[in-house]
Protein backbone atom coordinates (compact mmCIF):
# COMPACT_ATOMS: atom_id res chain seq x y z
CA UNK A 1 0.00 0.00 0.00
CA UNK A 2 1.35 3.44 -0.91
CA UNK A 3 1.95 6.01 1.85
CA UNK A 4 0.31 8.74 -0.23
CA UNK A 5 -1.87 8.46 -3.35
CA UNK A 6 -3.02 11.57 -5.16
CA UNK A 7 -5.63 11.13 -7.91
CA UNK A 8 -6.54 13.81 -10.44
CA UNK A 9 -6.50 16.60 -7.85
CA UNK A 10 -7.70 20.03 -8.90
CA UNK A 11 -7.92 23.12 -6.69
CA UNK A 12 -9.57 26.30 -7.86
CA UNK A 13 -9.43 29.38 -5.60
CA UNK A 14 -12.26 31.88 -5.88
CA UNK A 15 -15.39 31.74 -8.02
CA UNK A 16 -15.32 29.63 -11.19
CA UNK A 17 -15.35 31.45 -14.55
CA UNK A 18 -18.96 32.13 -15.63
CA UNK A 19 -18.46 33.60 -19.10
CA UNK A 20 -15.64 34.47 -21.48
CA UNK A 21 -16.70 38.12 -21.58
CA UNK A 22 -16.61 38.42 -17.77
CA UNK A 23 -13.60 36.45 -16.62
CA UNK A 24 -13.77 35.82 -12.87
CA UNK A 25 -10.76 36.24 -10.55
CA UNK A 26 -10.53 32.49 -9.95
CA UNK A 27 -7.10 30.81 -9.91
CA UNK A 28 -6.62 27.18 -10.93
CA UNK A 29 -3.75 26.33 -8.58
CA UNK A 30 -3.75 22.56 -9.30
CA UNK A 31 -4.96 20.86 -12.46
CA UNK A 32 -5.30 17.07 -12.58
CA UNK A 33 -2.35 16.17 -10.31
CA UNK A 34 -1.76 12.42 -9.79
CA UNK A 35 1.12 10.52 -8.17
CA UNK A 36 1.87 7.78 -5.64
CA UNK A 37 4.53 7.83 -2.92
CA UNK A 38 5.47 4.32 -1.70
CA UNK A 39 6.19 3.72 2.01
CA UNK A 40 9.69 4.70 3.13
CA UNK A 41 10.60 6.78 0.08
CA UNK A 42 11.85 10.36 -0.17
CA UNK A 43 9.89 12.43 -2.64
CA UNK A 44 10.51 15.98 -3.82
CA UNK A 45 8.02 18.35 -5.42
CA UNK A 46 9.82 21.08 -7.34
CA UNK A 47 8.39 23.93 -9.38
CA UNK A 48 8.47 27.64 -10.03
CA UNK A 49 7.02 30.17 -7.60
CA UNK A 50 3.22 30.05 -7.52
CA UNK A 51 2.90 26.70 -9.33
CA UNK A 52 0.88 25.13 -6.48
CA UNK A 53 3.34 23.32 -4.18
CA UNK A 54 1.97 24.79 -0.92
CA UNK A 55 -1.60 24.24 -2.10
CA UNK A 56 -0.82 20.56 -2.69
CA UNK A 57 0.88 20.17 0.71
CA UNK A 58 -2.04 21.80 2.51
CA UNK A 59 -4.39 19.33 0.82
CA UNK A 60 -2.15 16.37 1.76
CA UNK A 61 -2.17 17.56 5.38
CA UNK A 62 -5.97 17.85 5.44
CA UNK A 63 -5.81 21.63 5.96
CA UNK A 64 -7.59 22.27 2.64
CA UNK A 65 -9.80 20.20 0.34
CA UNK A 66 -9.43 19.63 -3.39
CA UNK A 67 -12.08 21.10 -5.68
CA UNK A 68 -12.10 17.66 -7.34
CA UNK A 69 -10.05 14.48 -7.14
CA UNK A 70 -8.99 12.48 -4.10
CA UNK A 71 -6.09 11.93 -1.69
CA UNK A 72 -5.43 8.73 0.26
CA UNK A 73 -2.97 8.46 3.17
CA UNK A 74 -2.03 4.87 4.07
CA UNK A 75 -4.83 3.67 1.83
CA UNK A 76 -7.54 5.78 3.46
CA UNK A 77 -9.35 8.52 1.57
CA UNK A 78 -8.93 11.72 3.61
CA UNK A 79 -11.41 13.82 1.63
CA UNK A 80 -14.25 12.66 3.91
CA UNK A 81 -15.29 13.82 7.38
CA UNK A 82 -13.22 16.78 8.52
CA UNK A 83 -12.42 16.16 12.22
CA UNK A 84 -11.74 12.45 11.88
CA UNK A 85 -9.65 13.09 8.81
CA UNK A 86 -7.50 15.64 10.65
CA UNK A 87 -6.76 13.34 13.59
CA UNK A 88 -5.87 10.48 11.26
CA UNK A 89 -3.64 12.71 9.12
CA UNK A 90 -1.96 14.47 12.10
CA UNK A 91 -0.77 11.12 13.40
CA UNK A 92 0.95 10.43 10.08
CA UNK A 93 1.98 13.66 8.44
CA UNK A 94 3.87 16.71 9.74
CA UNK A 95 4.50 19.96 7.86
CA UNK A 96 7.22 22.59 8.16
CA UNK A 97 5.71 25.78 6.76
CA UNK A 98 7.62 28.42 4.80
CA UNK A 99 6.68 31.08 7.35
CA UNK A 100 7.17 29.50 10.79
CA UNK A 101 5.14 32.22 12.58
CA UNK A 102 2.03 31.12 10.66
CA UNK A 103 2.10 27.79 12.50
CA UNK A 104 3.73 28.57 15.89
CA UNK A 105 1.16 29.66 18.46
CA UNK A 106 2.65 32.87 20.00
CA UNK A 107 0.92 32.16 23.34
CA UNK A 108 2.59 28.77 23.79
CA UNK A 109 6.04 28.09 25.19
CA UNK A 110 8.41 26.38 22.77
CA UNK A 111 8.53 23.23 24.91
CA UNK A 112 4.75 22.86 24.68
CA UNK A 113 4.77 23.52 20.93
CA UNK A 114 7.36 20.80 20.30
CA UNK A 115 5.54 18.43 22.69
CA UNK A 116 2.13 18.81 20.95
CA UNK A 117 2.44 15.68 18.75
CA UNK A 118 3.81 13.76 21.77
CA UNK A 119 0.73 14.64 23.84
CA UNK A 120 -1.46 13.36 21.00
CA UNK A 121 0.50 10.09 21.01
CA UNK A 122 0.36 9.73 24.82
CA UNK A 123 4.17 9.82 25.09
CA UNK A 124 5.44 9.38 28.69
CA UNK A 125 8.84 11.10 28.92
CA UNK A 126 7.92 14.30 27.11
CA UNK A 127 10.41 16.64 28.82
CA UNK A 128 13.38 14.43 27.94
CA UNK A 129 12.17 13.95 24.37
CA UNK A 130 11.65 17.71 23.89
CA UNK A 131 15.18 18.41 25.19
CA UNK A 132 16.56 15.79 22.75
CA UNK A 133 14.64 17.31 19.83
CA UNK A 134 15.76 20.88 20.64
CA UNK A 135 19.36 19.71 20.83
CA UNK A 136 18.99 17.81 17.54
CA UNK A 137 17.98 21.02 15.73
CA UNK A 138 20.76 23.09 17.36
CA UNK A 139 18.78 24.91 20.07
CA UNK A 140 19.63 24.99 23.79
CA UNK A 141 17.42 23.01 26.15
CA UNK A 142 16.34 26.24 27.94
CA UNK A 143 14.61 27.31 24.70
CA UNK A 144 11.72 25.17 25.95
CA UNK A 145 10.72 27.86 28.48
CA UNK A 146 10.66 30.76 26.02
CA UNK A 147 8.12 31.97 23.44
CA UNK A 148 8.45 31.92 19.60
CA UNK A 149 8.80 35.73 19.27
CA UNK A 150 11.98 35.55 21.37
CA UNK A 151 13.79 33.69 18.56
CA UNK A 152 15.25 34.64 15.19
CA UNK A 153 13.59 33.56 11.91
CA UNK A 154 16.02 30.68 11.45
CA UNK A 155 15.60 29.55 15.05
CA UNK A 156 11.80 29.61 14.66
CA UNK A 157 12.16 27.38 11.63
CA UNK A 158 14.23 25.00 13.80
CA UNK A 159 11.39 24.93 16.36
CA UNK A 160 9.00 23.91 13.55
CA UNK A 161 11.42 21.19 12.44
CA UNK A 162 11.74 19.88 16.02
CA UNK A 163 7.94 19.64 16.27
CA UNK A 164 7.73 17.87 12.88
CA UNK A 165 10.31 15.30 14.05
CA UNK A 166 8.59 14.71 17.41
CA UNK A 167 6.09 11.94 16.56
CA UNK A 168 7.47 8.44 16.43
CA UNK A 169 7.82 7.25 12.82
CA UNK A 170 5.14 4.82 11.76
CA UNK A 171 7.67 1.97 11.40
CA UNK A 172 8.07 2.00 15.21
CA UNK A 173 4.34 1.96 16.02
CA UNK A 174 3.06 -1.12 17.85
CA UNK A 175 1.32 -3.55 15.49
CA UNK A 176 -1.99 -2.99 17.32
CA UNK A 177 -2.32 0.63 16.08
N1 LIG B 1 -6.00 31.64 -0.75
C1 LIG B 1 -5.76 31.87 -2.04
N2 LIG B 1 -6.65 32.56 -2.81
C2 LIG B 1 -6.43 32.77 -4.11
N3 LIG B 1 -5.34 32.34 -4.78
C3 LIG B 1 -4.41 31.66 -4.07
C4 LIG B 1 -4.57 31.39 -2.67
N4 LIG B 1 -3.49 30.69 -2.24
C5 LIG B 1 -2.70 30.53 -3.32
N5 LIG B 1 -3.25 31.12 -4.42
C6 LIG B 1 -2.72 31.10 -5.78
O1 LIG B 1 -2.56 29.74 -6.17
C7 LIG B 1 -1.35 29.58 -6.90
C8 LIG B 1 -0.49 28.52 -6.19
O2 LIG B 1 -0.03 29.04 -4.94
P1 LIG B 1 0.91 28.19 -3.96
O3 LIG B 1 1.07 28.99 -2.71
O4 LIG B 1 0.38 26.81 -3.84
O5 LIG B 1 2.27 28.18 -4.81
P2 LIG B 1 3.73 27.64 -4.44
O6 LIG B 1 4.16 26.73 -5.55
O7 LIG B 1 3.76 27.07 -3.06
O8 LIG B 1 4.57 29.00 -4.50
P3 LIG B 1 5.97 29.46 -3.80
O9 LIG B 1 7.05 28.53 -4.31
O10 LIG B 1 6.16 30.85 -4.31
O11 LIG B 1 5.76 29.42 -2.32
C9 LIG B 1 -0.70 30.95 -6.99
O12 LIG B 1 -1.04 31.49 -8.27
C10 LIG B 1 -1.34 31.74 -5.88
O13 LIG B 1 -1.42 33.11 -6.21
TrEMBL record:
GO biological process: transmembrane transport
Keywords, in A-Z order: ATP-binding, Nucleotide-binding, Transport
Matches recorded under InterPro entries: AAA+_ATPase, ABC_transp_ATP-bind, ABC_transporter-like_ATP-bd, ABC_transporter-like_CS, P-loop_NTPase
Entry keyword annotation includes Nucleotide-binding: yes
Nucleotide-binding recorded as keyword: yes
CDD domains: ABC_NikE_OppD_transporters
Domain ABC transporter: 4-175
PROSITE patterns: ABC_TRANSPORTER_1, ABC_TRANSPORTER_2
Single GO MF annotation: ATP binding
Family: Belongs to the ABC transporter superfamily.
Name by which UniProt lists this protein: ABC transporter domain-containing protein
